[in-house]
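Whiteboard transcription, Tuesday session. T.W. wrote the structure tokens on the left side:
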């Protein structure tokens, strides 16, 4: 062979080698892409299932169910994902059923407590009106009935919430009635910040506390007493205080009142019922505190979330 023949064979060999190398690289690239796709097909359902489980850890079962993609395969991953999806659907159904039951229970218990509050106040007021008529104070009795009518018009509304401003107006009618009844034996003071007037509060949340102060602090007190009602904003919450400087309570009786084991007088509205209403509505987002000293008076403090109209749904928070 001559030199040209060797060069031709060499070039052909080099070209063939290069083609083989290029074909090998392309083959590996195609295999890598195919392997990546296969891995993705295998791992995507697992990653999706893992994402759904992580969302479940945060308690958002609805979102976890929405994130979980449907899988048609019948392999282990597909079966596991399908069983997990069925479990989530059952959990969501149970949550909705339990929520509806709790709302129904809260509504029925609230209405029962409301039914106990309104007739009791009506009985006491009408009893006072009857006493005034017998005493010949018919004009004052008429004014008292007018105030009662205005209060009942607001008190018997179906909505369980009202603004604090409406509660104060309702309380003013009640105070007018009690001023006629107690004359100079008690002085009423109402101090409310303008910032909290549009805050939403449970209907009839102030009047029972003032009634409690009159029954326990003023009724048997030999001196003139003061009943003060105040409301102010504190760190995004509404703080309501009803205090009197009347008879107060000793430590033993205070413990009974704080534990709600003491029965209210004259079928009155027990503080236990007031606390139950707050617990039904706010859960753990409220504070109900009772402080008292013998011959020094009593302070009842309610702290609730400072929510406005836009934050409140009809019937609950």
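and on the right, the sequence the group agreed on:
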């Amino acid at each position: 062979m001559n030199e040209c023949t060797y060069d031709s064979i060499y070039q052909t060999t080099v070209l063939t080698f290069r083609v083989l190398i290029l074909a090998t690289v392309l083959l590996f690239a195609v295999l890598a892409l195919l392997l990546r796709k296969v891995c993705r097909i295998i791992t995507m359902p697992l990653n999706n299932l893992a994402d759904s489980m992580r969302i479940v850890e945060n308690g958002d079962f609805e979102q976890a169910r929405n994130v979980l993609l449907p899988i048609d395969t019948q392999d282990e991953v597909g079966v596991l994902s399908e069983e997990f999806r069925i479990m989530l659907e059952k959990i969501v159904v149970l949550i909705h059923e339990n929520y509806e039951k709790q709302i129904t229970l809260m509504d029925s218990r609230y209405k029962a407590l409301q039914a106990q509050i309104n007739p009791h106040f009506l009985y006491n007021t009408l009893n006072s009106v009857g006493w005034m008529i017998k005493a010949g104070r018919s004009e004052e009795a008429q004014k008292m009935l007018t105030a009662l009518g205005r209060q009942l018009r607001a008190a018997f509304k179906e909505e369980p919430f009202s603004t604090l401003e409406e509660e104060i107006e309702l309380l003013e009618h009640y105070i007018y009635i009690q001023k006629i009844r107690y004359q100079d034996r008690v002085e009423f003071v109402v101090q409310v910040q303008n910032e909290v007037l549009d805050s939403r509060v449970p209907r009839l949340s102030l009047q029972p506390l003032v009634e409690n102060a009159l029954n326990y602090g003023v009724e048997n007190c030999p001196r003139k007493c003061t009943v003060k009602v105040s409301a102010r904003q504190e760190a995004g919450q509404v703080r309501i205080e009803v205090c009197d400087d009347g008879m107060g309570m000793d430590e033993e009786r205070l413990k009974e009142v704080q534990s709600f084991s003491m029965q209210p007088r004259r079928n009155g509205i027990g503080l236990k019922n007031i606390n139950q209403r707050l617990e039904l509505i706010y859960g753990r987002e409220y504070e109900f505190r009772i402080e008292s000293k013998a011959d020094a008076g009593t302070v009842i403090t309610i702290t609730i979330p400072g929510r406005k109209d836009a934050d409140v749904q009809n019937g609950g928070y």
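Someone added at the bottom: Residues 3-69 form one domain.
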